[in-house]
Specification:
Length: 305
């Protein structure tokens, strides 16, 4: 992705219902160009889907970033199948080393313990490096029946236009907009995307970064990395259990990996770095989305087929 695509994707991750005019302003392009960029990101598979889900705070979930290390006796495809059968795990990305990056959502210490036991007891797994991550947990909203009806139509396409939602729900367009605004402003409902990198000529890779807490905080380091790498840096996963960041970078060529690492090691406070090159991610529905869909179905709000 170039800087324009990156700016647009970052905004869509925060709120996938941003208007093309807003996206264009953020990316410093016209609304027409923003629309074309979004359409291309969807067509090439970088943005797999626009989705709606509960916030972490509203659902009671926390996030985990995991590096799963199997031994040579296990069939990678069989292992991935077993891992993704666990409803807590929703992303699997194979590393060039033979290990896997996983993303999971769990509820409380009991859920984390259950996830840890499950992963470490799998046949052929040497180790599971599990990092609960620090993330903005959002807010909470007591959903109105009308909002649940709107959400039922957004489950399969969270960017449905106001006019189409008004037509399907038989609510006025102004009412639909107001109800949507309430959900967005409460931060209890998240309008996000399924983002799958490495679909174009460019590729994403992750650097596991250990840092000295006597020099800086993780948040400070994240901001510093963004400043040093305005083009390459995308985002970071902050470990909640140790001074470690898993920072995502976008590059054009493999040779750029070494350039990023060399520059990172010059930043005061960074103690060590480890490159994690991944490809062909499998991305499923996160538990918070599945939970919302099931709740709407139970309460009879899901639209008839």
């Amino acid at each position: 992705m170039d800087p324009i695509d990156k700016a647009i994707v970052k905004e869509l991750i925060k709120n996938n219902r941003r208007t093309y005019a807003y996206l264009g302003k953020v990316a410093n392009v016209t609304s027409k160009t923003a629309r074309m960029r979004v359409e291309r990101l969807v067509d090439d598979g970088t943005v797999e889907e626009f989705m709606v889900l509960k916030s972490l705070k509203m659902s009671g979930y926390d996030l985990a970033f995991i590096v799963l290390k199997p031994d040579k006796s296990v069939d990678p495809e069989e292992l991935v199948e077993q891992v993704l059968a666990n409803p807590m795990v929703y992303v699997s990305a194979p590393l060039t080393t033979g290990a896997f990056i996983l993303h999971a959502e769990y509820q409380g210490s009991e859920g984390l313990s259950e996830l840890t036991t499950f992963l470490r007891s799998l046949h052929g797994v040497e180790d599971a490096d599990i990092h609960p991550t620090v993330r903005d947990r959002g807010g909470v909203i007591e959903l109105k029946p009308a909002q649940k009806k709107i959400l039922s139509y957004l489950m399969d396409d969270a960017r449905l236009p106001i006019s189409e939602l008004a037509k399907r729900t038989r609510f006025g367009a102004r009412r639909v907009r107001r109800l949507l605004d309430e959900m967005v402003e409460s931060r209890g409902i998240q309008f996000a995307i399924k983002y799958n990198p490495n679909k174009e000529d460019e590729m994403d890779f992750i650097v596991k970064i250990g840092y000295d807490t006597k020099v800086m905080t993780g948040t400070d380091l994240g901001s510093l990395i963004e400043k040093h790498f305005p083009r390459e840096y995308f985002r970071s996963h902050f470990s909640a259990i140790e001074p470690t960041l898993f920072s995502v970078f976008t590059i054009e060529h493999l040779i750029d990996v070494e350039k990023v690492i060399t520059k990172l090691r010059k930043i005061k406070g960074i103690l060590d770095t480890e490159v994690l090159l991944y490809y062909n991610s499998i991305i499923l529905d996160p538990p918070r989305r599945t939970e919302l869909r099931e709740e709407l179905e139970r309460e009879g709000y899901f639209p008839p087929t």
